[in-house]
Fold this protein.
Amino acid sequence: MRYLPNGKQMSEADAHTIHKIGIPSLVLMERAALQIVETMHKKNISTEKSLIVCGSGNNGGDGFAVARLLTEQGKHADVLFAGKEASLSEECRCQKQIVENMGISVFTEFPDEEYTVIIDAVFGVGLCREISGHYKDVIDWMNLQDTEKVAVDIPSGICAATGEILGTAFRADLTVCMACVKLGCELFPGKSYAGESIPVAIGIDPKYFSNRLDVCYTFDKNELGKLLPARMMNSHKGSYGKVLMITGSPGMAGAAFLSACAAYTVGAGLVQIYTASENRLALQELLPEAIISCYDSYDDNQLSRLLDWADVVCIGCGLGMGQISEKILKNVLKNVSCPCVIDADGLNLLNGKIELLNQCRAPVILTPHMKEMSRLTGWSIDKIMEDRFQALDQIIKQSGPDRKSSIICVLKDSRTVVAQTNRQKFVNLAGNNSMAKGGSGDVLAGTIAGLLAQHMAPFEATTVGVFLHACGGDEAKKSKGSYSVLARDLIQGMADAMKNAKECR
């Protein structure tokens, strides 16, 4: 697990380290500069002739210290001071004075020379206003230079909380992040400007964020093996749970297959598909391992028996929007006593009726993409993208404190976020654009259901399911490329990812 703080949270951690732990700000600045220089060398970035562009704050102080260290190493380092003398922080003023005392060139006008690298130390994580005027000119000029580009902590112009571009932003090849990668460096469009983001240790302990519910976290791929549920030597199919897939209206056998196959692939012991009769033959051929139960009309008693059988219910994949589907969903929400994953048409049927969730006695996992989230919240997609965390809070808290059980919401996007009340939000960084295909969501729903069946706690099953699904996408891209990955390939990709993760433990 690694934390992804925003600017405010990082500033609080910085202040805690200085005032509570007792590490002086200048010491942190010196460590930051050392790590920046070392990381550039590790990444084979030429520092033979460097231009460090510094602002007036402590980010600029880091930049001045970098200029000094490079000079001490025998490199040519110039500084472009883009800030204001009157606005210099105490630490930045000190570092600037040292650089001037050493005879390092400090410009206030754009130099005509060519450099092997430009280092952005103009703005830090505290930036919250749109960049304009002189600062915009400076950043735009840096972007025009044909050389390698490195950002200190966060590229100037990126909002550390949202990834929003504040008027303009520095386009880095590498961002050296102090203690933690900032959330804005991983959310789009900020991610497109940050390049490779590498966290470095400077004395601020990331564990400071462990009890902060407002701080997001993520997983790294070397953790996958530890995250997966255990497989016991003395076990049988009943040990790994029973999944009921309520999915597949007439002609939608594919959605039923993908979700059920995913559940089996991630380890579920038994999967029963409840689907329209028209899909029986296709599903028996596609997935003979599954139990197939069919309906021609709504049957309350049949559905009740199936709900009693299940350890997990997944409803919605290819379910359709007809009256039968609506009756099935209402019955499930009223009577289900085990965790329930609601996807696709299940979510669409909740449009304007989200209060139906209030009657559910079991944990509910909602898996909307942006358009489905727009229907659930009444927000435009643009508004959700501007503040996805607030949109998530609206869903998970919408039923109030008297709700019988918790809601977990998975907002699917290039950066999928998982949220539950009183839990840190999970931001998924794995996966790739090859996964943007029909059926990918069906695979995810089945993946989460399959992990839930193996007695994982609902929030953990959901976060690991999202992560595993994305790891499967990365494996699929390796074998099929960016264009040709199909949803079914994600299932094989997950199998490969799990096998590799367990073998590497």
Observations:
- Residues 235-471 form a domain with the UDP-N-acetylmuramoyl-L-alanine:D-glutamate ligase fold (CATH 3.40.1190.20).
- DSSP finds 18 helices and 18 strands in the chain.
